[in-house]
Amino acid sequence: LTQPQDKLEEIAAKCAAYMANPEFCRTPGLHVEGPFINKKNAGAQNPEFVRPPNFDELKRIHDIAPALIVSIAPDIEGANEVIRKGAEIGITSSAAHTSSTAAQILEAKKAGLKHLTHFCNAMTPVHHREIGVVGAGLIDDFLKLELICDGIHLCPDMLRLVFKLVPIDRLMMITDSMAASWIGEGEVSLGGLAVLVKDGKAVLKEGGALAGSALLFNEGVRNVVEITGLPLHQIVKATSWNQAQSLGLQGFGKLEAGFFADIAILNDDFSVWKTLVGGEVR
């Protein structure tokens, strides 16, 4: 999250400690969502800690625990330099919390931008005189789109539209889940901001902005199947393979000899039957 630099480095150190001895899921790296975003599009990020793009700050986090992906606003001065330098050391950049025009997104793509974070949320929408970040994501043949498939961040019709217009190879299902995922209903904190969870929806207590999600991944898969009607053998690409390819993770995302056997096995109702990490039940 968008936090002070010392806090981000502290979090990275805790992640590195877990990554050295992963008891549950495998954790290949971090997603640093901010702090190099546009305050106007902060959403549930704490605007108090938003600051200009700074590669040295990102590198310090990356040196503690690998930052596989950084979300950044390309419309902020200095963003493309961070995108370019990040690409040189293997950090994937994704546009997020941004007021960028379509042209700014395509310019950032030249610098190395690969993704659009939580597509349609906290970014410029399609307009008939400026197609914005959303329009750029729909028409570009390269950028991968992250989709929060809870039916809240993207309404069912929008999910249906995206899956109809965009090739499955460019789509990546995510959860954007936070600490509220397992509490049912109640109040939690997100980056120092109070969040209320009710009816599966997490919002800031003050202002009501969506604050991440309480979505479980298997529920997202179920939603996509029910909303789009697409067969699972197509949808599965957007659950794992596309993500592994975009982040340069070798040996992940396929059920194939020689790949890591990190597998979630679902029942017919999409509830989780078993999870395996490296072929071992966890």
Structure description:
The strands form three sheets. The protein has a six-stranded parallel sheet with strand order 1-2-3-4-5-6, sandwiched between helices. Strands 7-8-9 form a three-stranded antiparallel sheet, with no helix packed on it. The protein contains nine helices and twelve strands. The chain has helices at residues 5-20, 55-64, 79-88, 102-111, 132-139, 156-165, 217-228, 232-235, 241-247; strands spanning 30-33, 67-72, 92-95, 113-116, 144-148, 171-174, 186-190, 193-198, 201-204, 263-266, 272-277, 280-281. It has 282 residues and is α/β, with parallel strands linked by helices. The chain starts with a helix and ends with a strand. The longest helix has 16 residues, at 5-20. Helix 4 crosses helix 5.
Observed structural traits:
282 residues; alpha/beta; six-stranded parallel beta sheet; three-stranded antiparallel beta sheet; 9 helices; 31% helix; globular
In short:
By secondary structure, the protein is an alpha/beta fold. The chain is 31% helix and 19% strand. α1 runs parallel beside α2 and α4 packs across α5 (132-139).
- Secondary-structure element order, as H and E? HEHEHEHEHEHEEEEHHHEEE
SS summary, helix count: 9
Average pLDDT for all residues = 94
Note the beta-strand portion: 15-25%
Distance between the termini: 28 Å
Portion of residues within helices? 25-40%
Query: Quick one: biggest sheet?
Result: 6 strands, parallel
